[in-house]
């Protein structure tokens, strides 16, 4: 596996805990997006990006500066996977929209995106993170579907590992 890092933004600790689980399974480090630098981006071939979703589908607050850092970096040829936390019951119309915002902010970067997930088995009304009929990354609802989180993480990590 090439140099890999998990970068997360978390306001309540949920996305941080999930980032730590993913990093542990991949044998890499998880860093808060508040600590993201151009050097961290350039020193890693694989970027696993995680955000929670707030309000009407917005990124976690710290990601706005983090997205600028990514947009200012050379992502051409890097591999990126995205995961996101959301609430499919209270915010079913913007479920994991933060993942869509991350993707839209860097989709033209020349990076290769991996880790899309089928929408089957998810309960939601709409999501900016659904592209071509699939979630752009791993959506998780650790509030209403916490009993599915570990299995979803396990399956997703197994699916992306060969591409890292």
UniProtKB/TrEMBL annotation:
Keywords: Electron transport, Flavoprotein, FMN, Transport. The keyword Flavoprotein applies. GO terms for molecular function: electron transfer activity; FMN binding. It comes from the Bacteria. Residues 4-161 form the Flavodoxin-like domain. It holds the Pfam family Flavodoxin_1. Its cofactor is FMN. Low-potential electron donor to a number of redox enzymes. Belongs to the flavodoxin family. This is Flavodoxin. It comes from Prevotella aff. ruminicola Tc2-24.
